[in-house]
Amino acid sequence: MKKSKLSFGLVTSFIAAMSLTACGNGPKADKKALVTFTPYGEGETVEIVTDEMYQKYHSTTDGISKFYSQILEVLIRYDFEKNGDGANGMLTLKEIKDKAANDVKQKKQEAKDKGDYNTEWKNILNEYNVENEKELKEHFIYEHEKEEISKHYFNTNIDQLTKEFVGVDASGNKVESKVNSRLPYHIRHILIKLDASATDFTNSTITEAEAVKLYNVISALKDGTDTFGTVAKSFSDDGSKEAYGELEPMLNNIESSGRLHNVSEFQLGVYAYEAILSGKNNATISEGLGVEGKYKTSNDSIKDAYKGITGLVKVPYDAIEQIYQNRHIEIDEFGNQLSDGNPIMFPRNILWNKYLNHHEVFVITNAARNVGDNGNNGDQTAIANSVAQFKNIASTTSFDANLGARFNTVEGISANANEKILTDEAGRVILGVRSEFGIHLIVIEKSIYDFANANVTLEEYYTTEVPGSANYPKTADGKDKDTYVNFIKSNSNTDYNKRANDIKSKIKSFDETYDYRLYEDLLAKYKSQISFAGDEGKKLDESIARYLDVTRGAKAHTQETKLNEQWSEYLELLTYQNAKRGQYYESATGEYKSVMIPEGCAVNFKHGGDDYKEGGKCYYAK
Q1: 3-state class (DSSP) for residue 33
Q2: At what angle do helices 208-223 and 228-235 cross, to 10 degrees?
Q3: How many Cβ atoms from other residues are within 10 Å of residue 132's Cβ?
Q4: DSSP letters along 305-374, please?
Q5: Residue 565 belongs to some domain of the structure
Q6: Does residue 354 share a domain with residue 274?
Q7: Please, are residues 192 and 217 in contact by the beta-carbon 8 Å criterion?
Q8: Strand partners of residue 583
Q9: What's the pLDDT tens digit per position in 15-32?
Q10: Which run of H or of E encompasses 540?
């Protein structure tokens, strides 16, 4: 390997040591060695860190990280020789060498493809911090050995890793972990794609075709002939339609972009419904979903701030039907354009803006529309009632009991026994959110709050086993339990294996410091063979342990901070939206006003009249 100040001779000297037999001919640790490893017994040692190296670089984080990397490399290479090389399901050393040779071949081809071979090849060697082809191959050999040891560690510790990934046990208590859990959600969704502006909170417009699309999807869910997945397959405007609307498990992980994987309204809408609006209470989950974080510089938690800013919006199914029934009306019954033909005055758009053009999470109910006394005849009280309904848009006294079996009473959501909520075929609430892409309709197939489920625990649900294997979760009578892996009910083991591997990938990658687990495991495993000499060696051991803990803590803090930023950004959006959609009293004219167009203007549209002329209550010029 390239003889850098911190890693000189590491791999080459260790490879030499590995090739020795117990004949006493191995390299000796000198008197200045702080960390040594004894692979074969007394007299044969590998020098890992010298006192000179330590004194020069121990005060820097980069130095400690390199000492850690050196020790990890020695432990992994030894562990592979001892427990790998074809054992425990690992590749043989020959297979690894063949893969490494192929890696080198590919890199040489890359250099050729870029034109100036000598220059590009030198750049590749510098990239991997090696001096020649032989050392590059040794680098790849180590990487493949590390991969095999990592897989073995994962398979050996899968039960514990799954527990930490999920984050709560069957009693709802926090699973102890040095890293953030991912609190997975299994969801399906339907995207109704719309071109309507997502930043115009009061007067965006949809086309007649989009009004039809909204109605077709929601009415299909209401009618109950098809499952949610079948409706998704038929109507969803994104790639998930091929999987009947199913998405990969939704995790609370902040990605490299600094954002959640799903758009904020989508993911935080689900979290808000679960952790704030549904009445469920679990401190571990609330903290993990970010709702206990502070909002801005106030003393309010995100949960409290959310409740102060908004709540669960209940959209009457009747509003969806009215948007559809008024989809084509753009002139009055006399053939006149109203308000100079301004499309924001079309009934479908007045209804769209009031009932669906908002970024709160919503459900669809059997309640009657709250039309605000339908007043647009100069009665200011009626106007005030009509424009102030973006939160209270559903009547709490009048309900339609004839909408079908897909409308059900939902504990914690229904205001009374008469109010029913649109659900899927299994009685799961269908959530709605508005984002820049349109309207998302969401069903939670498996909630993180299902930790106490008697049929299948969350750990079982996210099993990495496949049906038919000895460790696949089974009921008392020996039947396969319903899990994420067999959710699709396929006849192909290939499908099940793919889903099991997807979960394995999620569980393994949830810990960004996964290599630290290997270090701690191997250090404990070979503690009798590795020596941290004297006070300085002990300090180095402690410094590395502290470095691992600090790095983990920093990553956890970043996760929590970025999640809090996402919540704060979402709440700021809702606050700004609510201000735009609110009403105000104009003292000069003694009138209530709003940039929202009263619903009465949609109801009365076909009759036209003076209200739609310049100066009228329903005149909105282009």
Answers
A1: strand
A2: 160
A3: 10
A4: HHHHH---EEEEHHHHHHHHHTTT--S-TTS--SGGG-GGGSHHHHHHHHHTSS-S-EEEESEEE--GGG
A5: no
A6: yes
A7: yes
A8: 594
A9: 333 333 333 333 344 457
A10: helix 534-581
